[in-house]
Amino acid sequence: MKTGSCTIIIKSGGEMASGIAVRLYRAGFRNILMLETPRPLAVRRAVAFCEAVYDGEQQVEGITARRAETPGEIRELWNGGMLAVAVDPDWKLLPLLRPEMTIDAVLAKRNIGTAMSEAPLVVALGPGFTAGVDAHYVIETNRGHNLGRVYAEGGAQPNTGIPGDIGGYTTERVLRAPVDGIVAACRDIGSPIRAGETVCTVNGVPVAAAIDGIVRGCIRPGATARAGLKLGDIDPRGVVANCWTVSEKARALGGSVLEVLCAHLNR
To answer: Which NCBIfam families does UniProt cross-reference here (predicted)?
Structure first.
């Protein structure tokens, strides 16, 4: 099967899913559809194709995705060299498009409905899945020595609840909602920030940065947040350009997906 004719469906259009889509696209795979909820809550919005749900179109590293509603519209985008994003939280498009591969990149830390019967090749990211039971392969998402490791048996490491270390910081770099409510007054992505300064508010309650750095990501203003929801990400390295490119983690996971797919097609 030629790469251009291989249909791939990714559940989610968030940061990690988008990094995977970028690597697949650059490897020649063009028929890529990303399935999303009606109101995605991406933090790293600048590198998440799910923003096409709101704006109709989103570019990540020069690759364009557009929102589509029907299989016909999806195929039209593919023919034009673009990725497709559809609001389909129940994954009803799966049997209509008959993909060669599905990728569960929801990162829900549990299986919310993925099955090996969905496609000839089913891959799931992170904990909550067992290779050979829920998916053909499971990919490790925990930063560290095994990041990107492909499991043909068993599953990924359990969720630690601790964000990955960036610049020597873990929990300190992540912003979370202090209360339930509407997110507002967000600082622009790429803005420099000092510890103690407000990045955004939830129902008027300020959410302050705990460290100096750059606002690498912040949830979309107007979003409804629950207490504890991840709202933003402060990058202590201070490199503004990093805000607009796929992270090393997302790129690594994309390479793992590509490894599995190429092995599958070359059998």
So the answer is: matur_yqeB
CATH class for the domain made up of 8-159+247-266: alpha beta
52 close to 102: Cβ distance less than 8 angstroms: no
The answer to whether the pTM exceeds 0.85 is yes
Report helix, strand or coil for 78.
helix
Q: Which two tokens stand for residue 108?
A: 């829900």
pLDDT averaged over every residue in the chain: 95
Cβ contact 253:139 at 8 Å: yes
**CATH 3.40.50 occupies which residues in the chain?**
8-159+247-266
Query: 10 Å Cβ neighbour count for 113?
Result: 12
Nearest to 225 by CA among 252, 250, 205: 205
With H, G, I as helix, E, B as strand and everything else as coil, classify residue 249.
Answer: helix
**Three-state secondary-structure class, residue 225:** strand
The amino acid present at 227, given as its one-letter code, is A
